[in-house]
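Regression check, acetoacetyl-coenzyme A case 380:
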Amino acid sequence: MDFTLSEEQLMIQQAARDFAQSELLPEVIERDNAQRFPKEQIKKMGELGFLGMMVDPEYGGSGLDTISYVLVMEELSKIDASASVVVSVNNSLVCWGLETFGNEVQKKKYLTRLATGEVIGAFCLSEPEAGSDATSQRTTAVDMGDHYILNGTKNWITNGSTAEIYLVIAQTDKEKGHKGINALIVEKGMEGFEIGPKEDKLGIRGSDTHSLNFNDVKVPKENRIGEDGFGFKFAMKTLAGGRIGIAAQALGIAAGAYELAKKYAKERKAFGTEIANHQAIAFKLADMHTQIEAARHLVYKAAWDKDNGSNYDLSGAMAKLYASQVAMETTIEAVQIHGGNGYVKDYHVERLMRDAKITQIYEGTSEIQKIVISRSILRD
Ligand code: CAA
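Current build output:
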């Protein structure tokens, strides 16, 4: 088994590390406090090719593999998970969904702009009454022949007000259940499409999360992705890859907190020595390091499965389940190692702890990952 990263992968990892240090770190606390979206930083990431990493260069992407993508996600998330979620949603949910299931016209019209970072996208599945239970879509897309009329509300949408292109999941034929659901491309500015209030969140406060309202929005039929009734499968297949991106985000949050805790433990003195010399602290670091390494193996394996054409529903769900748990546990311990300093903002670890929580919730809660995992292992 070869665990060596290629020269190219190492270069991309270093580029993301440098970018995170020079561009994300300087104002990350201020952005968190002010709930300010990292607009300039996202623009620069588009220029670096981070927003369409796996997209074919024919459509403006970087044409890289999923391993490179998770390396970038990990590095960015060590510093700023509010910025990395934009990278994750744009790459995994929006670009991948369009490139894999969109037609040529849709790819030329939308994917090229998304992959270069000229615009960013949003993935709109969750609703006030359809979160984990994603087949219970209340948003309707009524078939009017050459167009759909879209009505409903979407909740907790990442990039809600900053996106230009929205992939919206809606019910066309209730009788058909999940087979009557469609995925439509909706553009900002379409009549009847309103951006709702911004959410005031515990973590990833720099990310832009809104509800969206659709009031008789006329969406041309050519904006439907795939065949009639493909929308739910589109969402599930797209989310399966998205979960690898979020797993990498969780891994990065954990690794970021661990690095800070280790550095602090080697500097901070108590009882006449650096606290790293106390076994109570050294053992915490040992546990953190081991868990992070285990999470990393799961994340890389899921990415490897995707790159090698293997099924990644199971490996992606396991990676997300475990890495998000490690992110939560590691960040709590990082705060503990920092003591009183961990509880104040200047030391970053309290923010990482708040940011970690969302990785157990979005793109399928931990409980949903266990449904996916248990169904998969019991099928055999
Ligand atoms: N690939 C392909 N098809 C799939 C699939 C997959 N990974 N998972 C399910 N399907 C198909 C099934 O085969 C089935 O089709 P058939 O009837 O033709 O066999 C159909 O989809 C329905 O599947 P289920 O019967 O398994 O449906 P269910 O109601 O039991 O729900 C679920 C399954 C896994 C729980 C699903 O509802 C789910 O994943 N829920 C969580 C939703 C979620 O992750 N939301 C996140 C919101 S997006 C977000 O957070 C983005 C952001 O902004 C950061």
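Comparison notes: Residues 231-267 form the longest helix (37 residues). The two ends are 25 Å apart (CA to CA). No diff flagged against the previous build.
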